[in-house]
Specification:
Elements (H helix, E strand, L loop, with lengths): L1 H8 L10 H11 L2 H13 L4 E12 L10 E10 L4 E9 L8 H14 L5 H11 L14 H11 L17 E10 L5 H18 E2 L2 E2 L9 E8 L1
Parallel strand pairs: 3-4, 4-7
Antiparallel strand pairs: 1-2, 2-3, 5-6
Helix pairs in contact: 4-5
Length: 231
């Protein structure tokens, strides 16, 4: 797992004991991660539960547009329900790392970058992504939300519309799930963790209803699941 992760990242910098990449591996290898994933997802699937997890990939590419820097989920899993539906589970792993910059900050930095690099599409990407959610990046109520949660949602919702890689071999996806796993390792900060949870709740409260994405200009409506896991 470590070798695969470092090969994809082309660096070992983010593989640290007690941080998110290593904690995700520890969870699956040593703490019955597959069983926990199925249990949590089945809470929202009801009478057609997942019976098997068929395929998975770490640093899973989940493009939602044609920009060069493709959205990557920390892990992508395809499972199958009792009734034969394929379920895609996009995982964002955290310890106490933030959900990245706010939309407002990302938009400001993209504008500044574009002034120096006129060919940059960063501004266009942020505007287009926000448009899919029916908002603008400089809207007062939106600028303070975390940008990573927008592309986490869009990436999950777009599988496998771009027929990318191994996911395309699994057939049609009937259910989409975006799962945030927060690992409470020895390096977890409760203060940082509570702030991250508040950021998550603000985003979900704005765009989700009863745990599922509202109608948006996206290919599907993922369920949102948030789990805190002591390690």
């Amino acid at each position: 797992w470590e070798a695969r992760f470092c090969a994809i990242e082309k660096s070992a910098r983010h593989w640290q004991e007690g941080r998110s990449a290593q904690a995700l591996a520890d969870f699956f290898v040593n703490h019955h991660g597959e069983d926990r994933i199925k249990k949590e997802v089945n809470k929202v699937l009801g009478q057609d539960p997942i019976v098997a997890l068929k395929m998975a990939e770490i640093e899973c590419k989940c493009p939602f547009d044609d920009c060069r820097n493709t959205r990557r989920q920390d892990m992508g899993i395809v499972g199958q329900t009792k009734g034969g539906k394929n379920v895609f589970i996009g995982i964002e792993a955290k310890v106490d790392e933030t959900f990245g910059p706010t939309v407002g900050k990302a938009y400001q930095e993209a504008q500044e970058y574009k002034r120096q690099h006129p060919q940059s599409r960063r501004v266009e990407r942020i505007v287009d992504l926000c448009k899919r959610f029916g908002v603008k990046p400089d809207d007062k109520e939106i600028s303070g939300l975390r940008y990573q949660l927008f592309h986490f949602t869009a990436g999950t919702a777009s599988v496998p519309m771009n027929k990318h890689g191994w996911i395309a071999t699994c057939g049609d996806i009937g259910v989409h799930v975006m799962m945030t796993l927060v690992f409470k390792t020895a390096k977890y900060s409760a203060d940082k963790g509570s702030k991250n949870k508040a950021d998550y709740d603000r985003f979900v409260g704005r765009f989700f209803k009863d745990g599922r994405l509202k109608d948006m200009d996206l290919p599907s409506r993922p369920y949102a699941i948030y789990c805190e896991i002591p390690l």
